[in-house]
Amino acid sequence: MSDNYEQPFFERPRDRQIDVAxxxxxxxxxxxxxxxxxxxxxLEVALEREFFHWITKRALNELAEERTINxxxxxxxxxxxxxxxxxxxxxxxxxxxxxxxLIKEFSDPxxxxxxxxxxxxxxxxxxxxxxxxxxxxxxxEHGEIKxxxxxxxxxxxxxxxxxxxGVEVKNQLAYIDQTEFQIKLQMCEHLDLRPLFVARMMPKNxxxxxxxxxxxxxxxxxxxxxxxxxxxxxRVRDRLGLPILCIRELPDTxxxxxxxxxxxxxxxxxxx
Length: 272
Prior knowledge:
The protein has 272 residues and is an alpha/beta fold. It is built from nine helices and twelve strands. The strands form four sheets. Strands 4-7-8-9-10 form a five-stranded mixed beta sheet, sandwiched between helices. It has a three-stranded antiparallel beta sheet with strand order 1-3-2, with helices on both faces. Helix 4 (93-106) packs antiparallel against helix 8. The longest helix has 21 residues, at 109-129.
């Protein structure tokens, strides 16, 4: 794991929103007398309703390159984390050390696999409550059609009322990797499935791409930890302010968003 995106953000034309994000970051998080050290992902999530993650990332990089703020890269066994703090804050090491200890816990591969399993369990139960059948799990074929272009699988194929969906589930703080996103869309098209992306958060341009492909994006807003990790979830929320929850089942309001859209698609199909 790393704070560096698979999306090639360094190749994007410079967006004027970067300058806006730099101003917001300085005003809210890096005052001259500030004494807080921030983890890069923490800031990307904190500002995601205003800026794409990659905009915040670029803004942070530019502020660090300009020496407007301080920067350090730190590693655990499974993660590379970026930290930022105000220039006048002289003693950041303890905060970095404490946050790294948390990151080490939630980036451990055993735990990240548990996160994926937790989201799938919540969804399987939730789909059943609103009448969807899970036809297959971890699959690359549908009917007599197979996907052979890559080694990727779809997490689920679900069906109701004669409409079948290829489901991709991402229970993570970061956006789905751009390359993987495009491959999963291609898989759904090849297998004659409507794409359904289930994630904590996705950027608006991804969501629009899914709409254009005839699919739906179901966003939770929160990352869901397993129930037994409630104490870890509380420490992550308290220290980093990240949107972490431990829940027994998905709220009906979340599931109904998808069900209403599904019914609307049926009505469109019936009208021809």
